[in-house]
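SEQUENCE AND FOLD
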Amino acid sequence: MNIQIATVCDYAADYQGKLCIQGAFDTLCAQNFPVVHPQCSIAIRVIFQPDDTGAHEFVIRCVDPEGKECLPATPPIQMDVKFPSQFIPFVSRNIVYSLQHVKFERQGLHRWLVQHHGDTVASIPLRVTLFDDRRAATGPAG
């Protein structure tokens, strides 16, 4: 099994096996805390080899800068991987988890952990930071 893509984005969809991603991002700027992000998605594309045939379970968790879970984990995402022919070298599956009104209590490096049967197989960083109005008004230092 190989995680081909794992990202936070504005919107994602599985469209007939194609993973459609819009607005991938890794930083969320806020004017104050707590901050509520109106909508985002976690988009994951997994590649399975023939020896991965069978049942798989994924859970997505969000942890704060101290590694403490800061949002409820997803319900287990179940998938059964089958190969319709011995001549197919791999199959892909997409996971799209959409969130609304995601609340971050404070700034720092948060992480979305993608777990497969309890093991972390991908870690997606999200920097939640304070927006500096002074720098935006004057432009970059130089």
Q: What stands out?
A: The helical segments are 133-138. The mean pLDDT is 92. The radius of gyration is 18 Å. The beta strands are 2-15, 18-25, 27-30, 35-48, 54-63, 69-71, 77-81, 91-104, 108-116, 119-130.
